[in-house]
Amino acid sequence: MLRLLSAWLIAASALLFAQAPDGYRTNTGEACGVGFYYPVDYAEFPLPPTETVTRARYVRREVPEILKKAKAMVKPSFDVFVVPKPVGGTTGAAKTPIAESAPASRPEDAVASRPESRPDSRASDSRPEGDSAKSGPKTVREAMLEAGRIVGFDEFRKRRLGGWKLKPLSAPNAPLKEWMLERDDARADAAWNRIGYLALRDDGPQIVGMVATSASPMEREFVVEMRRVARSLAIRADAEALEERLESMYAGKKLRNIPFRIEVRRRLAKGWKAIDTENFIVVHHLERDILVNKIARDLEAVRPVFVETFPPVKPVDAVSIVRVCRNQAEYTQYGGPPNTGGYWHPGNEELVFYDYYQTALDSEKGTARRSTDKDALLVLYHEALHQYIYYAVGQVSPHDWFNEGCGDYFSGAIIPQYGDRVKDIGPSRWRISRIKDLHEGKAPGFIGVERLLNAKRPEYYGPEVGNFYASGWAFVWFLKESPEAKKNPQWSGLLDRYYVTLRDEYTKSVALLGPEATLEEKQKVAETAKDLALKVAIKDVRLDQLEAAWRDYIVKMKHPWPEDRKEPAKGPKKKP
Description:
Layout: H1 2-16, E1 24-27, E2 34-39, E3 42-45, E4 54-60, H2 65-69, E5 77-84, H3 132-135, H4 140-148, H5 152-160, E6 164-168, E7 176-183, E8 194-203, E9 206-215, H6 219-232, E10 234-235, H7 240-250, H8 258-266, E11 273-276, E12 280-284, H9 289-309, E13 320-325, H10 328-334, E14 342-345, E15 350-354, H11 356-362, H12 373-393, H13 400-410, E16 413-414, E17 424-425, H14 432-439, H15 449-454, H16 457-460, H17 465-481, H18 483-486, H19 489-492, H20 494-513, H21 519-538, H22 543-556
Parallel strand pairs: 12-13, 13-15
Antiparallel strand pairs: 1-2, 2-10, 3-4, 4-5, 5-9, 6-7, 7-8, 8-9, 11-12, 14-15, 16-17
């Protein structure tokens, strides 16, 4: 009976969207729950795993010529969203003082709030009741979900339309309410300004709508297209057919957390694919199978090395998403922080990076060395270490010198093209030139051991971030690879002492807090555990002697890629 009902709903939806207008295609809404037409020159864009309001995102593939001529390098885009109404309330649209705008925010925030590379908080799908309601979120993921929860149009306007003025296009009693969006900071004498369009409809217990942004030179065409999308919006209630297909895909497979994997696949944007491994699900928008398969193999190849080097407090059974964007532009639009090559997002449970080789092919800028798949894999190994350590310690990140230094150390993993294990660890090509310049006095900004170990996050990721990254890698490399450190147990054991103390102290402290411990409480004991771990790690270590030996070792270290020390062409440097 269920299959017959699903088939009937699919047939009904197909009839509803059978005749897409010329120049439009149909999103039947099977995955997102909302069906609609979209212009053919738009492509679906993925949403972060913790996004619960936006159901689908579409971005124009290229910047329109009319905007290029106006030097407005903006890709028009739109989001389809669904928000529940307040209990006993309405959409709130008619009662909202629509001439009043919310607090200012970046223009692109109207469509989506982008994930930070290292968020401080996260949240759950539903608020706990009783005493636990006072405790707050217990994990980073819960805090994010809680922070992203939106009820009613008024809250949606404040949270997602900051900095925009709403100008009505429709009558107050129209079934589909429409507004043009205009920036608070728009200037009449400007060559172009950001513009937007908003539409929503009362759909019983919820509000369904869309919000789109573009630039003023193409306002007429933009509004015509977006109004057609808005008029086609239709809630779909049938997800059974898709769920059945995905469940069938995993039938008989011995993989951990299959419900999580099904959810990841259910949310795949059109054109994106996924590959399962024992510990990961690789979500990608790549055309080269050779790179996709290499990523999947290498993730499992480096995991045993991580486990052996840093034994977890308990077996790491989390299944994490590895998202590989087609190029740097797509990575940035998805939420990649500026001047980064990849990031691990604990709340979204995603490791995100991009195809460096494809980016080099797409780029018109000259660089000192064209990026290759080796650069992409370097970032993969680096971020995979962050991902592993986070779970191995008990969902907490170590000091930045340890986290970034070890990430860069393992970024030098050498795995044969079709191998399934790490053959060796080599130096970091991204760090060695800078650290040699710093230690040899050819560049200013040398960072001593004491400053490196005690740097707080704002300092580490501040103006000297490149020097800190290079120093973090070189310090870890020295402790693990240099003959001088191997002859001195206090030096060679520093990393192990730090890690074991952090892991055990944090685990003990969280256990004492009890199962109802909040994220805020866990973060406090994490800081205490990190401080203790550092004290234990450097106890009885003469930092001045360690620094002198470290500096001398780096100066004498042979550079495997001397050509990289030539003056590079101008262009941004990527950091994982």
